[in-house]
Each structure stands twice: as C-alpha cells, then as structure tokens.
C-alpha cells in the first residue's frame, strides 16, 4: 500500500511539464530568496544585532573550502549489484585514499525509490554529488537539466557511436555509462529444463507457451516474475519483448516506440503484445508476482520452484553472487521471437548541478570512463562494458556470448533507457492490465499517456 502511494506520487511528479510547472525558475528563485532571507535575518540579528535580513539575503554566503568527500546515490543493494559497485569503490579508494565516499544505497531494484529520493533532494536545493541514472536517450534527456556537461571526459573514448549518442543532449555530454545491460533475456533453471524435457533455445512465443504448459503439468511455476516495491516497470519489459516478437512489430518498431514515434492506439503490435501478456499472466506466472522483487523472483529459479525468468542480465550477476553457476545451474537465451536484436540500456553517473564536492564527482565520473572500472564492474554485475577495448578474458563464457550478441546485432533502446515519465506511467497502466486484462481500455490508456509524454519524438 505504501509502495503504491509513493509510486502514484512519483508518477505524477514525472509527467513532463508537471515537474517544470512545479519548480518554474521563478518559483525556485523565490523559494531560494525566502530561505536566504530567513537565514539572513537570523544571522543579522545573532551576529551583529544590526542590519536587515534583505541585506544579508543579497550577499553570497562565504564559500566553504571543498571537503574531500563524495556523496553517491544508487540502488545497487541486491546480490551481484552490491559487489559490483564495491569493486569500483575499491578502485576509487586506491586512487583517492583520503577522499571519503558517502555511500547512499536506496534499496529498491530498478531505482523507483532512489529517483524519488534524489528528486526530493534536488527540489530542496540539496543535490548529491552524483547519482545512478539508467542509460538510454530517453532517461538521459529526462535528467540532463540537473547535470553539468562533462564533454572533456568523453574525449577519445572507444565507445560505439550509437551508445555514445545516448549521453548527449543538444551539444553536450552529461553522463558516463559504466555498463550496458541486455534486457531481452530468458533465464532458465538448467536442471529443471532437462528434467522436464524442454528443448532450448526456444525460438517462438508459441513454443514458449507450449513449454510453459509442459512445465505447469509437471508441477512447477513456468515463469517467475516480481513487481513489488515500485517495480511494476518490469512489466514494460514484457510489453517490449512481445512487441518485438510480434509480426506487426519487431526491433525497429520497439526502437521507434521508445523514441516517441509510435501510435499505440492504432499500431497492431501493441494489441498483439497485450494478448501475449494476458496468456502469460493468466496461466504461467507465479500468482504472488505482486509481492516479489525482481531478485526474489530469481530466487524461485534457484529454489527449483520455477523454470523461466525474463530479466536484464543483472539477474545473471545475482545468480552468480548466490553461488549459481552459468551453463551449469542456469542457462540463457534471447527471449523467444527476438532473435537478431537486443533490447538494451545501461547505468550511468553524472555531476549534479550544485554538487557539494564537484571535484570528486568529476573524478568519479572520470574513473567510470576507464577500461579498468568497466571491466571490474561488468564482470561481477553481468553486463557489457561500453568501451570496446576492455579485455574479455575475465568474463565467463556465457557473458562473453551475451557481449558478442549485443555487439554483433542490432541494438534497440528499451528497458530503463526510456523517458522517465513513460517508464513509470506505462508500468502503472500495465500493473492494472495484469489484473483486469482489459485490452481496449489498456490500449486507450497507453495511447493517452504516450501522446502526453511524447508530444514530439525524441531527438
Ligand atoms: C536496472 C539497472 C540495473 C539493475 C536493475 C535492478 O534499472 O539498470 O543496473 O540494477 O535495475 O536493480
């Protein structure tokens, strides 16, 4: 209930226009002035007993020397994620031993909790130094207004042009990606697949449902999923999977969709996708999906209760951190019907405007641009380094296959790389759908939200 309340609030906050309406420049200035006047009045009376608040309010406060600190906000608290960020902290500490890292992990996979917390801080004029921002053109365009350009850090980096372009808004680069995740994956419990007699890889959605039926008859959960704690946006991932698998959709369609170039009301791929979601949810998903997080859903596979899970490759990092071995305990395949393309997004950090420790925020971002940081992080996280010169020998064979797949095929913007307001609103609509199964109402709701959120396509 609490989670629900928070998310509604968050969604409202994130409708484009609403955010800027709430903190128009004038309002922000007048709020700052009010705070300054209040401080000024107090200081004037206390310090000198003379003067007016207005006088103090117009004087800039004395600038404190920058402390050797770095305040970082992120949501990497689950297995695999935590270890991966710790590996990068270790590199930072080696390079800057006397800088204190103020680590602020906001538990809540996918970042709904952290995004709301950081937005509140930004509103209050208390920005952190840096925070996790999922990497994709939509999300970066949603956050760039809070960030300083970091063009110099990008100079000469061996990152493919498409990925590079996601960091850019107008003429400037605003964030540095640390990793790229592949979103369109099916993970499976290898032992159960063999025991039940499922042939993998499964190539089509129809065959996938047949396999699910067989698993159900054998007494296991065919498909494990979790959407609790604000994590309903994982449902968007399923919509993307099925739009990509639809004969009326495909990878270019999903890419266009996430660039704001689609028409949900009339595009048949949207209806096709909802029909498949209905089949999956009515028949094959764990009934308590609304009470589990993404990693708890993964645990159903590890407990030999469920066979399949659809999730980004951070699930692989999670499995591995729990001692489950790739190609021994669990298997991977591109989601059925999506062969030949990967839906991807990444994770990035920038330097917040007004960061209290800008020197170290910049140093952090610079560190993330190095091959070493990307290697140490991605090996643990289950991810692809954005830089193409990162040596791959420390990556396990499954991750190498995933990296090769991403680099050798078309990439499609999706997952958490979309416009922030869409991420939240689409999740809210789909959460309703997986209990009501009202396709026409859902298409209409998606269309209304889409047209509001994308008055025009992204650049
Ligand atoms: C994604 C993020 C991943 C992973 C996941 C679960 O949004 O890009 O790095 O952390 O959430 O928390």
Brief description of this entry?
Helices cover 50% and strands 14% of the residues. By secondary structure, it is an alpha/beta fold.
Topology:
Elements: H1 2-14, H2 18-22, H3 25-47, H4 53-58, E1 69-74, H5 81-95, E2 100-105, H6 112-123, E3 130-135, H7 137-143, E4 147-148, H8 151-154, H9 161-165, E5 168-169, E6 172-173, E7 176-182, E8 185-189, H10 190-196, H11 205-217, E9 221-224, H12 234-245, H13 251-258, H14 268-283, H15 294-302, E10 306-310, H16 314-321, E11 330-334, E12 341-349, E13 351-352, H17 358-368, H18 371-381, H19 397-408, E14 410-413, H20 420-436, H21 439-453
Parallel strand pairs: 1-2, 1-3, 9-10, 12-14
Antiparallel strand pairs: 3-12, 4-13, 5-6, 7-12, 8-10, 8-11
List keywords for this structure.
alpha/beta, binds beta-D-galactopyranose, 459 residues
Please tell me what the overall shape is.
globular
What is the number of E strands?
A: 14
Average pLDDT number? 89
Helix/strand structural class: alpha/beta
- Percent helix range: 40-55%
Bound molecules: beta-D-galactopyranose
Kindly report how far apart the N and C termini lie: 37 Å
**Biggest β-sheet description:** 6 strands, mixed
Q: Which residue ranges are poorly predicted, with pLDDT under 50 across at least 5 consecutive positions? A: 1-58
Radius of gyration: 23 Å
Q: DSSP helix count?
A: 21
Estimated share of beta-strand residues? 5-15%
């Amino acid at each position: 209930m609490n989670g629900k309340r928070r998310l509604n609030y968050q969604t409202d906050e994130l409708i484009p226009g609403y955010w800027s309406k709430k903190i128009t420049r004038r309002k922000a200035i007048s709020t700052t002035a009010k705070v300054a006047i209040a401080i000024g009045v107090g200081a004037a009376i206390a310090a000198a007993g003379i003067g007016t608040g207005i006088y103090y309010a117009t004087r800039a406060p004395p600038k404190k020397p920058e402390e050797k600190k770095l305040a970082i906000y992120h949501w990497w608290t689950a297995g695999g994620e935590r270890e991966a960020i710790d590996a990068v902290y270790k590199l930072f500490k080696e390079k800057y031993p006397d800088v204190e890292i103020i680590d602020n992990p906001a538990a809540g996979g996918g970042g709904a909790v952290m995004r709301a917390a950081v937005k509140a801080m930004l509103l209050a004029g208390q920005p952190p130094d840096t925070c996790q921002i999922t990497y994709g053109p939509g999300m970066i365009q949603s956050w760039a207004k809070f960030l300083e350009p970091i063009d110099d850090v990008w100079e000469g980096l061996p990152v493919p042009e498409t990925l590079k372009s996601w960091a850019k808004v107008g003429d400037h680069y605003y964030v540095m990606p640390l990793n790229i995740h592949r979103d369109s994956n099916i993970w499976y419990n290898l032992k159960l697949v063999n025991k039940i007699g499922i042939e993998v890889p499964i190539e089509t959605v129809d065959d996938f449902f047949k396999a699910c039926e067989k698993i159900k008859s054998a007494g296991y959960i065919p498909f494990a999923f979790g959407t609790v704690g604000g994590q309903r946006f994982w449902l968007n991932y399923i919509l993307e999977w099925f739009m990509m698998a639809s004969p009326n959709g495909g990878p270019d369609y999903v890419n266009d969709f996430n660039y704001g170039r689609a028409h949900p009301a009339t595009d048949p791929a949207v209806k096709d996708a909802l029909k498949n979601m209905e089949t999956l949810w009515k028949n094959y998903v764990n009934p308590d999906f609304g009470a589990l997080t993404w990693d708890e859903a993964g645990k159903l596979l590890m407990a030999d209760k469920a066979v399949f899970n659809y999730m980004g490759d951070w699930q692989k990092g999670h499995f591995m951190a729990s001692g489950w071995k790739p190609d021994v305990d669990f298997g991977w395949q591109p989601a059925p019907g999506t062969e030949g393309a990967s839906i991807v997004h990444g994770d990035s950090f920038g330097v917040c405007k007004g960061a209290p420790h800008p020197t170290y925020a910049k140093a952090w971002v610079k560190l993330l641009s190095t091959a070493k940081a990307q290697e140490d992080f991605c090996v643990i996280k289950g991810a692809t380094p954005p830089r193409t010169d990162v040596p791959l020998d420390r990556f396990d064979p499954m991750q190498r296959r995933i990296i090769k797949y991403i680099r050798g095929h078309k990439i499609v913007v999706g997952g958490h790389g979309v416009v922030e307001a869409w991420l939240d609103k689409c999740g809210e609509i789909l959460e309703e759908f997986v209990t009501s199964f009202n396709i026409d109402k859902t298409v209409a709701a998606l269309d209304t939200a889409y047209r509001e959120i994308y008055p025009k396509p992204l650049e």
